[in-house]
Amino acid sequence: MKEYYIQLDSNGYIIDITSMGPLLDGYIKILTNEQIPDLIMRGYYRWSNGFILDFDKKTEVDKRIIANPSIIK
Amino acid sequence: MALYSKKLYYKRGGTIYSVDMFTTTAEVGSEYIGIRDGSTSVYIKIVSVDDPNESYLRLRKSGITKSLAKIRGLLLFSLNSAVLTPTPANYPSTTANGMCLVGTGSSPYVIRYDWSSTNNRYEKNATAPLDISPGGYPRVIGISGDAQFIAVPVQSSPFIHTYKYNSDTGKWAKTAAVYPVISTSYYGCYMASFNSDGSVLVLGNYGDSGAAWHLLVYKWNATNNRFEGTNHCDIQTPRPCYTAMINYPNYSRCIVPFQESSPYVYTYSWNATNNRYEKHNDVDVALPTHGTGGWVKSDGSRMVASSYNGFYSYIWNATNNRYQKTANPSPMYTDYPIYISAFNDGEYLAVGRQAGLSIFKWNATNNRYEEDSSLIDDNGISGTTNGTNQINCNLKRLVITSNTVSPYMKSYTFNG
User: How many Cβ pairs within 8 Å bridge chains A and B?
Assistant: First the structure.
């Protein structure tokens, strides 16, 4: 099992992950053998003994990103 | 009296610091530094004030105390006097000797500001710095560490204009066009990144998805008076990029944040044998969205990559041949903190945000960048996206710009 530190937003979605310590305030330690999901910091994954994708939240977040793809053209 | 039995105390960021001093005058108290002549003492005393950086200089004579002045502990970034004739500008590029170049929307398109020690401010130089105008609206102008070379990325073809300093005229003279020319681009090049002597020029090319070359690498060929392309890199980014940055002062590492596809950033090491950048393994945790800017520590041991949602730091892991993510900076600003300048080789980052300017300090214990608002007493230019110095510099001055909101330019001296 590999050790990671994750940070959740107020709704329980993962907004940060690192394999490097220390364990900081606002972070929790998890152990997993799972591959870290791509784009895990977008805020639509939860942690419950595994990375759980919330499809509705993903749709909402992806729409927001597509609607505002760039500010520096 | 022993040496250093006196200390000068000053307060900065709420913390009291002391400087050892020695004197033969009489003691006037442990929280004071003073000089007494008869019944007259001039002394500094730290008192509780709302501003954590202030102390008071006081005069006490014949039992009566008068405040002479408030004095301030030296901030790490101290605001300079207002820029003389500021220009609406996207992004500033500065040099070690204090010169600052900005791109603007009208002729001559690139404007030079010189640092005035006398007036503690940048002042516009009336002479156009380039012998031939690049036109367009220049993006992040590259300046080599020795200021011999300038590269001006623009939105329309030919996308990049390069110049070499001519000491006879005091201007930068246009060189021949880069070779091969950039034939395909959608939004043009966005940023030019040089190494210290200008022998290597790296560009990020926002080519359309069919364009193979997003990372462009050129070396100076003095015989042909132009920058010439190498075979660039072994693996190009899958999608267009705005920026490509090399570590300073050399070019052993390169980071290329890119758009529209995870992991949104590729990183490379220079392979001298193959004369190209060669890609590392992907970062262990992808950026959450479009990669935009960044910075690489001079030895390549740490890098920062920014996206619209924030900036993220990574530490080099040689065993895994990749950069590994650290904890997010604290706080995690999400208002486009994508324009970053590094000071003291990344010990401090000046981060331009839409809401203003923030200074972060690397906390090695916590393995992350943490904002320290006591290091600066100014919030940049509010209500705009604050452009900061060209990335990869370790300079004594920080310049920020806006192309929409007055005062358009501000500058700070880095006292580190």
Answer: 70
